[in-house]
Amino acid sequence: MTELIVKKLNKRFGGLHVLKDVSFEIKGAELVGLIGPNGAGKTTLTNVLDGAIQPNSGTVYLNHHRIDQMQPFEVAKVGLGRTFQVTRSFRRMTVLENLYVPAQALGTKLSKAEIHDKSMEVLEFLTMDHLRNEYAQALSGGQQKLLELGRLLMLNPEVIILDEPFAGVHPKLMKIIYKYIERVNQSGSAIILISHQMDSIFSLCNRLLVLNYGDLIADGPPDDVKNDPHVIEAYLGIDEEEAE
Ligand SMILES: Nc1ncnc2c1ncn2[C@@H]1O[C@H](COP(=O)(O)OP(=O)(O)O)[C@@H](O)[C@H]1O
Ligand SMILES: [Mg+2]
Q1: 238 pLDDT exceeds 80?
Q2: Ligand nearest to the CA of 16
């Protein structure tokens, strides 16, 4: 069973203390929402978990591997993947090539033909098979987000962090992202979903973490968190437009 153990993480940027003793655990295929105001530290936490930046103190273990001092490609090999708030596809490669890359780069056991078949299956799921030979840079912002999600599927990570997957996405594509989240979760991956869209958070997640300027102020079932006075004061009191 997947086990992510985050213990007393601290991250400072100069004088700015962005993560303050953040601790939580995820066991099994949980679907956890991570919410909090802009600047709360959600993306920074994601960057620490995936190895893009290193914490000043604290530890992260994924399935008994210590990952807080690893590089992102090593963390990906252990089984944690993430998407970016601002997408990062290989713009001058085709859609299909973008899917080949993660599987090839991380030394999968799949043959070339198997990687191709899997890529095609992923594209069909994302309803993007007709775009397979387009350059990534020709895609709309929403399609680039889908492509990033597709690249994650190629690696079957045990833990997936989605950093604002719905932001700026057309409602039609949102539906696909919903299905995607349900699919990867049902296949056994744990998901951390960062979003300001409370409808999505409450309909998808069975647990919420609330980050407020570096402090994890709540961790529990959505209904409890929704009624927590600290959370209402810090975050849920403001309307969604403000939060975007
Ligand atoms: N590389 C960095 N250098 C300096 N400050 C940063 C850096 N990355 C993030 N910050 C600051 O850390 C705080 C948290 O940012 P972030 O993690 O992006 O928040 P969120 O994703 O919750 O909106 C913000 O005040 C932001 O300006
Ligand atoms: Mg962010």
Answers
A1: no
A2: 1
